[in-house]
Amino acid sequence: MAAEKTDEQQVKMFGNLACSRIRVDREGWISTAEQLSESGARLLTLWGTDDRDQAGGFRIDAAYLLSDSVLVVEHRMVDEGEPWYPSLAGLFPVALRMQRAAYDLLGISTNESDDRGWLRHGGWPQMVFPLRRDVDGSQQYPVVSQPYSFVSVEGDGVHEISVGPVHAGTIEPGNFRFSVVGEKVLRLEERLGYTHKGVAKLFESLTQHTGHRLAARVSGDSAIAFSWAYCAALEAITTTTCSARALALRALALEHERLANHLGDLGSLGNDAGFAFGFTHFSKLKEDLLRANSVVFGARYLMAFVVPGGVAADLNTEARSLLLELYDALETSVINLRTIYDNHAGLQDRFREAGRLDRSTAKRLGAIGLAGRASGLACDLRVDHPWAPYTSLAVTMMTQKGGDVAARVQIRFDEVVESLRLCRALLTENDSGVIQATVPTAQSNQLGMGIIEGWRGPVAVVLETGRDGGIHRCHTHDPSWQNWPLIEHAIIGDIVPDFPLINKSFNLSYSGQDG
Amino acid sequence: MSAITIVRQLSEVVLAIAIAPLFGGWIAQCRAWLQSRTAPPLIQPYRMLRKLFHKDAALATTASPLFRMTPYILFGTMVLAAAIIPSIATDLTFARAADAIALIGLFATARVFQSLAAMDIGTAFGSMGARRDMMIGFLAEPALLMVLFNAFLLSGSTALPSVVDVRTMHSFFVDPSLLFAAIAFLMVLLAENARIPIDNPATHLELTMIHEAMALEYSARHLALLEWAANLKLFNYACIGFALFLPWGIATQGRDGGVALAVAVGALLVKLVLAGAVLALIEALSAKLRIFRAPEYLAISFLLAVLGLLVHLLLEA
Prior knowledge:
Chain A is of the alpha+beta class. Chain A is built from 16 helices and 16 strands.
């Protein structure tokens, strides 16, 4: 970065991708962000830490995705009664909600005018900041309902529809406030945070060698991505090298996770458009895959597969032929179903033009992952910043220009076929080998970052080691942070009954974002 | 009015109430097969009704008496409609009291009450469902009237029984105008009974609901009556369709002894089995329309019915 700056200081960090870390003062915090914004970098995640026990005051960190590496910028708020830092929301709109969440957890504020709470829904008192070291995580508080001022839209015939947080179907909680005229949506405002579980606080009571189990449970649909990201961070800090076999198995599991979610989503998208035929057929395919998982990995959902140093178990002997057979069957069925979806006039009428998010809006809002690719943003870490074993797999990036529901459906079809190719390639390589390396206990105060392109987009885990094999701070980041605000824009001008379909085409995580 | 007429009338109403859920169950079964699912048992709707009748009703604190009355009114109007429609016999006590236009009025009454009740609680979903249902209704009613006019022109009467009587006299004579009317009627039937492509009875997505949104606040016996009334409505529409387009088998005036009635019931069951399969096939093959396509859809239905009228006038002339 800018060479003329003298108040910048390089700080050591580790990661599975090329990364560097600088410490800046308050002016540097915003000027660095300005330069990064101009150079086209994207804000990956932002988190706060209470370092007062190490005489460091509060610290705020921002991780940026550059074209060839990851840059972590940190700013320490020392000697201040009211710790604050300049808001990045003007440069990176995705920062806004992360900053609001950081305030709720740590009491570090910004100069942003929107200072409404994000994670705190009255579950703990206003002046208690649970991630501070002097707050005991076991304390119980009575729930006190908090008023929340949604932005209101004025006008003739405008009224509001409040949907959720409890929905008619069995889905995660989130509140959606629509301002509508008739059926037309003028504005949508999301309110999330209902599934905040205090994951970050819980991490601090775990050891480095048990944290991956919690990481796998941050967002159940991305268990492999999160647990791999955690292990990658720990392995980077301890400079552990995993065997090629272990990495291949992790990638195989990650692609299975992608396949299972894409198949499930393709079915649900059909169902939400009233085409239940697609739902039953894709559900069957997903079920076939999950059953194969339980045979070859020992579990349908792979919560305990990725462990520090490698994976929990190797595939059994029949696995290879069973999986290759499954992949062929899946590919044939998916191609057939794709033809049905593509040629179904009613379905295409629902998919096309619904929830359109054009490229410039997506870029401005910092869209990443699958939703970004559907709006023409070429961003896939498996291609842009490949890590082992993706370095040798030559993943083809799938992009679409449309930015509508149809584009997000097409991306899923393309990625299913590509994932099947990757799975086959991963199965033919290194059929044996050590699957687990020993991971030593890391020194304290080391910062490691694991970034894995999950099915939804880049999943990041930032691990800061504590004394005696403990965890000082562990921050988990789901790409839903970036992509939830996209839906507020994609729905504008569409009609209320199309919202479930548009929402499903993004299929973002509530749990992963709420933490 | 003879005793036999009353028996006929009574048996028709009882039959309608009894087998309407079965018809719903049959469509659900066909749909499951077409979607490669294991089908629920045929009697699933009855189990559902039994379960609901055994539950304690929960009412919103803001519910007015209108909200509580509506399920009974709805059920009542659908039973009355079943009494008017000649499903197995034409010589009916009630049929003389009301013609097909009054029948449409009866359906409209039910709609008005259901919409008012949906808005009564004051939730966003109730009002949303009510206004969508009103939109569908005001477009579907004219189309349905046009369909009926086709049949009225053929029989020279606005009463359904006489339509059946006249139509059954010409054995298997298919009037081309009725072909147009039949397609139009099928479209109206799907729209009016909250089925795909207009509404999705199986959805859990509250923002997309029409009929379900209006029933969201109901529980237990109230919900059971609403479900039953919905089943009856579909049954009634199917029977209107049979009376207009497939009247053969219905016990007509003068030929309505015990044997004829038994034949009529058998014929009705066969027709219901076929109609259920056709409805399930249509639903399995289509996706739900974007809601603003509904006016186009119903306009096409109206247009087809008008075309039927024109064809009739041209051929007569």
